[in-house]
Design brief:
Belongs to the carbon-nitrogen hydrolase superfamily. NIT1/NIT2 family. InterPro entries: C-N_Hydrolase, C-N_Hydrolase_sf, UPF0012_CS. GO terms for molecular function: hydrolase activity. Keywords: Hydrolase. It is a single chain. The protein has one domain (about 1-255): Carbon-nitrogen hydrolase (Nitrilase/N-carbamoyl-D-aminoacid amidohydrolase). The chain contains 7 helices and 14 strands. It has helices at about 15-30, 50, 60-75, 120-125, 150-160, 175-190, 240-245; strands spanning about 1-5, 35, 75-85, 90-100, 105-110, 130-135, 140, 165-170, 195, 200-205, 205, 215, 220-225, 230-235. Strands 5-4-3-2-1-14 form a 6-stranded mixed beta sheet. A 6-stranded mixed beta sheet has the order 6-7-8-9-12-13, covered by helices on one side. Helix 1 packs parallel to helix 3. Bound molecules: 2-oxoglutaric acid.
């Protein structure tokens, strides 16, 4: 199975429409792959807060239309990254996943919003549902950018049948080491592939980390991009998930329900 991660640049000198056309052409170019991935909020930019409301789209808006057509033309599974979805008065950071016939296979609304008390955390509403894309060769769980810091989400996706995680992001260059480390950690602890697709360029004054990466279920980095716009193409063996989980069955040793409160001063005993 071959995957292409399109680390598209989001720069302010390109309109959303132009970038949408360019992204669709880049997806069509990857017709030799089985799975193609775009990053988080690439139409507007993950930090372009002032554009969230003005450039928000309904679920089946221009980004949906362009990506559905590109997936069908390329005959690929397409994780089309995420866009700003407007649903009534609410905005969501919503990922779209298409099957190779261009049908919408899954959506995922980002659960952990980034920004603490500003930006996405106040402008967007949170999703509340885990989602696994039903790609027959490699069912992949969905998580977006800041979600990567929350391992319990990934455990939930494993329990829902994920053999891989696809993580689109607009991760800042300043915390690039966290990105690389957490991608490997999520792969190792869950014995699953991680396909983490970041953004290139600088928008809203935030330089993007790039460094999209594909990690196998043993934690080995199969491929890593640089900082600029790039398409990272990696071959995966989906059978490695089952063999890793069989040969080193750590997931079977999970002890559930160990979140009981520890009273201060007892040393946990
Ligand atoms: O967690 C981080 O350091 C970056 C997260 C982020 O940029 C996002 O979720 O948009």
């Amino acid at each position: 199975m071959r995957a292409s991660l399109i680390q598209i640049a989001v720069n302010p000198d390109e309109t959303v429409d132009a970038r949408r056309r360019r992204a669709a052409a880049l997806v069509r170019d990857e017709s030799a792959s089985d799975l193609v991935v775009l990053p988080e909020l690439w139409p507007v930019g993950a930090f372009a807060y002032e554009a969230f409301a003005t450039d928000a789209e309904p679920l089946r808006g221009p980004t949906y239309e362009a990506m559905a057509a590109a997936a069908a033309d390329a005959r690929v599974w397409l994780h089309a990254g995420s866009f700003v979805e407007r649903d009534g008065d609410a905005l969501y950071n919503t990922a779209l996943i298409f099957s190779p016939d261009g049908e919408l296979a899954r959506t995922y609304r980002k659960i952990h919003r980034f920004g603490f008390d500003q930006g996405e955390a106040v402008l967007m509403s949170a999703g509340g549902e885990l989602a696994v894309a039903p790609c027959p060769e490699l069912p992949f769980g969905l998580a977006t950018c800041y979600d990567l810091r929350f391992p319990e989400l990934f455990r939930g996706l494993v329990d829902a049948g994920a053999a891989a995680f696809v993580v689109p992001a607009g991760w800042p260059a300043r915390r690039r080491e966290h990105w690389s480390l957490l991608a490997r950690a999520r792969a190792v602890e869950n014995q699953a592939y991680v396909l983490a697709c970041g953004t290139a360029g600088t928008h809203a004054g935030v330089e993007q980390a790039g460094h999209s990466v594909v990690v196998d279920p043993w934690g080995e980095v199969l491929g890593e991009a640089g900082r600029g716009e790039e398409v990272l193409v990696v071959d995966l063996d989906p059978a490695r998930v089952a063999t890793t989980r069989e040969q080193f069955p750590a997931l079977k040793d999970r002890v559930l329900g160990i979140t009981a409160p520890v009273r201060p001063g007892t040393g946990g005993r």
